[in-house]
Amino acid sequence: MATRTLANGSRRDTTEPSAITARTVSKVFEGKRQRVSALSEVDIDIEAGQFVSLIGPSGCGKSTLLKMIAGLLTPSSGTIAIDGDTVVEPLPQIGVAFQKPTLLRWRNVLDNICLPLDLDGGRPADGETRARELLAMMGLAGFEKHYPKELSGGMEQRVAIARSLITQPSLLLMDEPFGALDEFTREDLNDELLRVWQHEPKTVVFVTHSISEAVFLSDHVVVMSARPGRIHATVPVILPRPRERSLRNAPEFYDTIRHIRAVLDEARLGEAGGEH
Amino acid sequence: MATPVVAPDTGETARPSRSRSSAGTKSAVLAVLIFIVIVTGWQVLATSGAVSPLLLAPPVDVLAALGQMVSDGTLWPHLSATVQETVFGFLLAVAAALVIGSAFAYSPIVRNAVYPYILVSQTFPKVAIAPLIVAIFGYDLAPKVVLAALLAFFPVLTNTMAGLTEVSDDEVNLFRSLRASKWQELRHLRIPNALAFIFPALNSAAVLALIGAIVGEFVASRTGIGYAIQQFTTTGEVAATYAALIVLSIVGLTFYGLLTLTERLVRRNR
């Protein structure tokens, strides 16, 4: 279950992806003047090894749900479990990538990727080798000694993803990691992410605003509605894997996008107040 | 009235341009030219009789006075006293500011209770209490060290507080998601972050410590550059007064250089 690097430097050979269950999970933010219901009675089951995207309008609570799975927020009611363990704090088998790369500016690229190892008992003998492999997989071989200020936004995010993978997490949680990037860079990073995922199977929960990104990457797209945040529908994406760039031109890719857009519209029109 | 937090050095530097070396040479040539103009102007002004020789000594005489102080050894006890007062005051201020700043960063309750008093004490011109401090601590090293420390303390305090607390939510969440302990968060996130804030404050603190030491010497002292300046002024040794001022500026530049060197060693490649 836990596939984190062990303190003595040994590592499990097989990575078993994690399964996630959420039961009647709600989250209310208590403001000074008002209570905001961010998420209301969400049930979700994510099977081990699935790539699942959360998509929906602003305020639908998709980032809130992701942060609760990560153990960074506590549900107001209900429970979330990863591999049967109730989440009350961040579990060791997760890797998290944020919207901002959040690299430490005083560490070079290699040391940034190795941060999770440094915080978990130090770098094992093959730690830096693995960091270099990940960096190469993200298309940044040779940038080990560069500092974050010398990198572009896309390069920084590649490093951040390599960092989230260094501990061989069985569950990767990504909160709009490519939201700030231009379309071309985003597509490149989608390709690289899928390549890594194919190489090291794991469960991925991916928050995004982009329908095409969600379709390209996912096995299931979870469509959410806002005020309060709920799961409106879970749409399976029946497209063959491995997925290549050429899929972006395929009619069935567009069919799926159209379908999900329709479900999203339905979710938004169903909102109380219907302000759209 | 709070001392504004000095902007942290985030390592953003201009990219070296292709013409950097030639631009550097031009700047150096210009700097030398400015120096020559100032010294020549000074010499002319002092020897032409336009300014009373009781106010301005020609640079040649100043240099001679400086050479005299060095060769007959009268400079060293004064220099050593001022440097000691400044260094001790600086170190005392930095140590206190780092400890108190960290305490404030970690306990908002303590900060909210104590900080207003420190703020009030900062709005007060501390050199005004120099005579009182001399009365309390006597005529030797102690009152100057205390004055130097009092002046140097505040910028380091505010920047330590800012550096330890101004980390982004994302950075904190990253460390939480990696199950970092509070100590690891401090060691790997907050302290490296704070260094970018603290080093610029140390430069201000060194200058302020030197000011504190000199003011202390002015008030009551038997030695030190400040004492020497007073003696030279009262006895009309104008050239020696200027020589002492030049020594002070060399002391200030040396502190600045040492701090820059320390920063390079501590914050490599940043």
TrEMBL record, chain A:
The keyword Transport applies. Residues 20-251 form the ABC transporter domain. GO terms for molecular function: ATP binding; ATP hydrolysis activity. InterPro entries: AAA+_ATPase, ABC_transporter-like_ATP-bd, ABC_transporter_ATP-bind, P-loop_NTPase. Keywords: ATP-binding, Nucleotide-binding, Transport. This is NitT/TauT family transport system ATP-binding protein.
TrEMBL record, chain B:
It is found in: Cell membrane. One of its GO terms (cellular component) is plasma membrane. Gene3D superfamilies: MetI-like. Pfam families: BPD_transp_1. Its main location: membrane. Coiled coil: none annotated. GO terms for biological process: transmembrane transport. It comes from the Bacteria. Residues 79-259 form the ABC transmembrane type-1 domain. The chain crosses the membrane at residues 27-45, 87-107, 114-139, 145-164, 194-219, 239-261. Keywords: Cell membrane, Membrane, Transmembrane, Transmembrane helix, Transport. InterPro entries: MetI-like (IPR000515), MetI-like_sf (IPR035906). It is a multi-pass membrane protein. Residues 1-21 are annotated as: Disordered. Belongs to the binding-protein-dependent transport system permease family. This is NitT/TauT family transport system permease protein. It comes from Tamaricihabitans halophyticus.
